[in-house]
What does this fold into?
Amino acid sequence: MKYCIGIDIGTSGTKTVLFDSLGNAVCSQSAEYPLSQPKNGWAEQDPVDWKNAVLETLTAVVKNSGIAAEDIVGIGLSGQMHGLVMLDEDGNVLRPSIIWCDQRTGAECEDIERLVGRERLIEITANPALTGFTASKIMWVKKHEPEIFAKCAHILLPKDYIRYILCGVFATEVSDAAGMQLLDVPNRDWSDEVLEKLGIDRKLLGKVYESPDITGYLTEEIAGLTGLTAAVPVVGGAGDNAAAAVGTGVVKDGAAFTTIGTSGVVFLHTDKPVIDPKGRIHTFCCAVPGCWHVMGVTQAAGLSLRWTRDTFCETEIALAKEQNCDPYEVMTALADKSPIGANRLLFLPYLMGERTPHLDPDCRGVFFGLSAMHTKGDIIRAVMEGVSYSLCDCLSVFRELNMEVNTMAVCGGGARSAFWRKMLADLYARPVCRTQNTEGAALGAAILAMVGAGLYSSVPEACEKIIHIADETAPEIENTDTYAPYYSLYKQMYAPLKTAYKELSKIQ
It folds into this structure.
């Protein structure tokens, strides 16, 4: 039996998993690290924290698995998208990474659309200028930290910084690079036109590969540190959502998934690039060579529930510790006592601005309808419903573009909650399913490594052998009808607040 490793460099932590060639997890290790918010709307992390977490977990997995090093034949990388990592000519990190949920670059997005032209930008990069994407972060550093930019010799994404640590190469792959706003998405390579108009030297960027392609091999130093051999190839891998798609078998036209992690995503595989001219959803290259995906993003999905836990649920955290269970189990038990609509309490989950469908870095969270009769269970349920409504907004854009959704899988931390899965099924008015293997992005990264190592001939072939359905949650039409007026009201609430959000952002 041969084995491959999937490494997922997330926002909250890194997870490294060793899989056999049938996709069974043999050994897993995780390590957490902090997120810094120096100012309102900012979000940064230290890339060295990612490096230490990867080396720690990779070493532990190899040591604890008992698998011979020569039987581990590939490594795949997955990671949080859009983060800006800047290195000097010696490979040293120049500043903390500005990560995906940072919202400081509104002015830079305006600069990008002025320099390239909004319509032309969407034609090339398949997306309007967005605060979350990497290009606007580069422009921000150019404007506000010119001394840092002058020292910059390499620009990498989070997982590609880890590739550099492991292999000593500067490379990326199409699914993650598509989220930088520098890639010609239909043609799957850097856009010289965009780079020239933004004043970014192509030499700063790594070589672009397809996701299953081998990009390099472990250095002797890393092999010695981790117990692996220097012959182990590292494939392109994928951005976290593209990797999760592979890990849930969403690799054919019309297949979709919803993930609730720190952010939330509704993701649809397509055999051709479909671009929303209004820029409400993202079109990226996917991890299957020659294919694409569209996705809508809720900036603060699981993050909204985590904020609720940390802000309001000290009692539930203590009770969970006594009962040796997850605090979210105690919280959702309270939410389950609240009726659909949370006793007429609505929540807008815009804690970190929003992408789909509003593209507004200034919008912020709102409780609407709050009264003295509301309980903690109502608040928790309203937060979960608000996130789910936001995910419904994503799905509604697909439908508007006549994109057919044939199947819907669910993954991420939120998918572990039967309560949340049922909420999604009822709101989507369609069944949602979970796969037997719940490793998601780590499994997807490992599958890409299996293809790169020659264990399978293609990504769809590997998924057909490895991915199996564990359970399905069916909707109740009565519940769908009960949710309808609340969702309708939710959709009306952003527009009248838009101007107020802008005014709030200007107050010092």
Notes: The longest strand covers residues 13-20. DSSP finds 18 helices and 24 strands in the chain. The first helix runs from residue 47 to 65.
